[in-house]
Amino acid sequence: MAWQQRIVRLAPRSRGFHLITHELEQALTHMEKPRIGLLHLFLQHTSASLSINENADPDVPYDLEMAFRKVAPEEVPYRHTCEGPDDMPAHIKTSMLGCSLTIPIETGKLCLGTWQGVYLCEHRIRGGSRNVVLTLHGEIGKLVDQ
């Protein structure tokens, strides 16, 4: 069993749900590939989150963003406003979705379902760059094609 870790710095994105599966897969190419294991993702921020959701229909991220704007609107008289009107709603959304995911790895690849993708959920109007810590733990050995 081996532990590996690296940080992926994501480019700044606007508010919304952004697929980052490909960026994570790219980062995995720079790590030793386990035959079987777990990839833990941890987002080092409090106003963005991670989610696994449908990656095929472009309406899904739009609808998710619309629903979350209704759940935590900016027009509420929040006390925490020093970072702008979108900051406290961003914290609420992050608390709901979370900042970490764990994904199984098989033959060095993410074991996501056919329609699943990993999303960076940017909750600020203009989010800055975001860091995702990838921690990979698994059984290293010869990969066998299936």
Could you provide a short overview of the structure?
This protein is α+β, with helices and mostly antiparallel strands and 146 residues long. The protein has a single domain, classed as YjbQ-like (Jelly Rolls, Sandwich), CATH 2.60.120.460. The protein has helices at 21-28, 59-71, 87-97, and strands at 2-10, 14-19, 34-43, 48-54, 100-106, 109-110, 116-126, 130-140.
Characterization of the model:
This protein has about 150 residues and is an alpha+beta fold. It has one domain (about 1-140): Jelly Rolls, CATH 2.60.120. The protein has helices at about 20-30, 60-70, 85-95; strands at about 1-10, 15-20, 35-45, 50-55, 100-105, 110, 115-125, 130-140. The strands form 2 sheets. The chain has a 5-stranded antiparallel beta sheet, covered by helices on one side. Strands 2-7-4 form a 3-stranded antiparallel beta sheet. The radius of gyration is 17 Å and the shape is elongated. The mean pLDDT is about 95.
In DSSP terms, counting alpha (H) and pi (I) runs of 4 or more, how many helices? 3
Strand content: 35-45%
Provide the CATH topology.
Jelly Rolls
Spatial extent as radius of gyration: 17 Å
Number of structural domains: 1
Helical residues, percent: 10-25%
Secondary-structure arrangement, i.e. CATH architecture: Sandwich
Low-pLDDT parts are none
User: What top-tier CATH class fits best?
Assistant: Mainly Beta
Q: Give the CATH H-level superfamily.
A: YjbQ-like
Structural class: alpha+beta
How many beta-strand elements? 8
